[in-house]
Amino acid sequence: MKPKATHKGHCQVCKSEQKLPGGVIARHGYKHPEGSHSFVGTCQGSGHPPIEVSRDRIEEVIKMYQIKIGNFEKHNAEIVAGKKVGSAAGPYADYAEVFVENGFYCYKRGPRSEILCSVLNPESDVGIFTVQRSRTVMALNEGMIKQYRLGIAYLEKLYADWAAGEIQPL
Ligand SMILES: [Zn+2]
């Protein structure tokens, strides 16, 4: 158990105000303050010092996003090279479950079981399906790359504009 929070501060990644149990930002969900990009799940700023104290986490998250972009680009390059089809391997492990519903191919994503469907014909032969599924996954990968690029642009500005501040008592 972390010591009870006595102060509050702002998250390095999403800038939201949070309590500081043990001097670090409480666990919280991600909500982008300016709506330019969106990710779901726990904010990467959780468990790190507030922005008033440090900007180190911003730099780490930028590096994480760059690695993720690299993985998506690599996956797409492998699909283009015919080394992989758009299976749920690699960076798309989240989409491991693929099923057919009302004529759509659907991908069940992650622990929240978010469902994403694409306009694929279930009557297609395996070859066409493979090509279509590859295109679908490539488009999904491109979408993620775009999101992470927006995220990086936002975080780079936050990093450049950073100035130390005071955390406030609760
Ligand atoms: Zn946050």
Explain what you see.
- The chain starts with 6 loop residues before the first strand and ends with a strand.
- The protein has two helices and six strands, in the order E-E-H-E-E-E-H-E.
- It is elongated, with a radius of gyration of 20 Å.
- It has helices at residues 56-80, 126-160, and strands at residues 7-10, 17-19, 97-101, 104-109, 114-118, 168-169.
- The longest helix has 35 residues, at 126-160.
- By secondary structure, it is α+β, with helices and mostly antiparallel strands.
- It folds into two domains: 1-54, no CATH class; 55-158, no CATH class.
- The strands form two sheets. A three-stranded antiparallel sheet has the order 2-1-6, with no helix packed on it.
- Zinc ion (ZN) binds next to loops.
Structure at a glance:
The protein is α+β, with helices and mostly antiparallel strands and 170 residues long. The protein contains 2 helices and 6 strands; from the N terminus they run ββαβββαβ. The longest helix is centred in the last third of the chain and has 35 residues, at 126-160.
- SS elements, strand count: 6
Q: How many domains comprise the coordinates?
A: 2
Count of helical stretches = 2
Overall 3D shape: elongated
What portion of the residues fall into strands of 2 or more residues? 5-15%
H-E order: EEHEEEHE
Please state the structural category.
Answer: alpha+beta
Identify the strand order in the major beta sheet: 2-1-6
Low-confidence stretches: 86-96, 120-129
pLDDT averaged residue by residue: 77
Overall radius of gyration: 20 Å
Which cofactor or ligand species appear?
zinc ion
Termini, distance in Å? 19 Å
Largest beta sheet, briefly? Answer: 3 strands, antiparallel
Helix content: 25-40%
